[in-house]
Amino acid sequence: MDIILPAESGDRVGYRLVGQPAEPIIGAAFPRVAYAAAHVVANPFAMTDPWSQAAVDWDRTMAFRHHLWRLGFRIAEAMDTSQRGMGFDWASAKELIRRSIAEARTMKGADLASGAGTDHLAPAAARTLDDVIHAYEEQFAFIEGEGGKAIMMASRALAAVAKGPDDYARVYDRILSQASGKVILHWLGDMFDPALKGYWGSRDFEPALDTVVGIIERHAGKIEGIKISLLDAGKEVLLRDRLPYGVVMFTGDDFNYPELIAGDGRRHSHALLGIFDAIAPAANAALARLGAGDRAGYDALMAPTVPLSRKIFEAPTEYYKAGIVFMAWLNGHQDHFTMVGGMQSARGICHYADVFRLADQAGLLADPELAVARMKSFLAVAGV
Q1: Residue 19: CB partners within 8 Å, gap ≥ 6?
Q2: Model confidence over 39-50: pLDDT tens digits?
Q3: Among residues 169, 266, 311, 346, which one has the fewest Cβ atoms lying within 10 Å of its Cβ?
Q4: What is the pTM of this model?
Q5: On the CB side of 313, how many CA atoms lie within 13 Å of its CA?
Q6: Of residues 340, 320, 336, 319, the one with CA closest to residue 328
Q7: Alpha-carbon distance 197 to 383, whole Å?
Q8: Which 8-state DSSP code applies to residue 56?
Q9: Contact predicate 75/112, CB 8 Å
């Protein structure tokens, strides 16, 4: 099949599809814990202000979670992939968490953890550390009250009011000591959210690392693991090597995940990745190969997904959600390319053309004819 795609130069370039759709293995045993941070499907027919009130198609949103569960992934629910802090508010997140926990109970083996943050507290409204603590407590109480497991997300409000590492320690010590179950921590870099610059009380990695490790060591019995999203494999390995026994690393590195998951022969990372939303069929097959001891097969399946992931997560990285939802639309998981808050407008037409090419080359267009038809309609709206 052939299609005409736009180039950055303004030219129109012919492209012939070359990919063979990835073949996932249903029921495959993974050698790593693999969380996929899942997106939400907007409802384009709802008559609301799209910038202030999220309108969600709950049926399609839940159906996509069943798709990921069937492929063997756990769900990281109500995280930044679902646009927390970018059009998707806490009230909507509560409904999403409630529905997802209920859905998980209907499917054997389904599992999830949900993001607990402070996004219902505007950073400008936070005056004290107690304000931040109370905000975290509210979200933890809701998730745990629903029978869920919490992922302690980074807080814009805490970044705004904290004066140094001791303030971060005070907040995390308080919340972790109160948690009823094991918690996953999340170190989100400022490339994903510029408001988090200087998180942990320092703009330098080494002192921030010391602060995080100190918190983890004090609460090792309450922490399942930590996700680090700095897009720097070396920094992840430095933290991974310092984790106490029983606390695992969840890679959030959407640039370097294949080698981090495979490991260095001493330690490896588990995964909590936004890109798994888009590459789930290939990632499923690759993890099955890794579990069977076939490292070459794992690498062969994972390697083509990396250029796609790097394109989707290119700067400004916080807009990666657009590429994730675009992939879901191309692959028939939703009938439209509309996002909460109109976020589909965050990327340009040439970006989406590159995503299309790279998805094909990675074997991630499940139905190439459908994908081509949808891409042509999308290009026509853009004047191509």
Answers
A1: 359, 360, 361, 362, 363, 364, 365, 368
A2: 999 999 886 776
A3: 266
A4: 0.95
A5: 27
A6: 336
A7: 38
A8: B
A9: yes
